[in-house]
Amino acid sequence: MSRVSLQRTTPILRIFDERKAGEFHVQFLGFAIDWEHRFEPGSLLHVQVSRGARRQSIPERRRGAGGADVQPAHPAGGDCHRHVSGLTPPPMCRDAVAA
Fold first, then answer.
1. What is the pTM of this model?
2. Is 61 exposed, middle or buried (0-12, 13-18, 19+ CB in 10 A)?
3. Measuring CA to CA, which residue among 52, 59, 70, 72 is closest to residue 21?
4. What CA–CA distances, in Å, run from 89 to 9, 19, 78, 98?
5. Element (H, E) at 97
6. pLDDT at 64 over 50
């Protein structure tokens, strides 16, 4: 039996608002947009963002289609946590952070 080695995982985090997702992932967390795709104009958006070696897939979904809960493991997790903890959350996230 051969061993399976997991090289990289890509979390899929569903979004419902393109503008808010861009503000959160790009402006707040500092990710860069790798690519964007729509099957046709006006159809749902699918975006891949990355920051260093971290990569996330963020497809747009209709309301009620469910979301995702991800707790990524990262060797520099403490550094990332300290960085994010020192930021002021964008307005759309303040209620969630205060909870």
1. 0.61
2. middle
3. 59
4. 26, 16, 18, 10
5. helix 94-98
6. yes
The token duo for 96 is 């969630």
Q: Is the pLDDT of residue 33 over 60?
A: yes
CA distance 53 to 74: 10
Q: Whole-angstrom Cα distance, residue 46 to residue 55?
A: 13
Encoded amino acid at 64, one letter: G
Backbone angles phi, psi at 14, to 5 degrees: -70, 140
- Residues sharing a CB contact under 8 Å with residue 96, sequence separation 6 or more, in sequence order: 89
Rg over alpha carbons for the chain, rounded to the nearest Å, is: 15
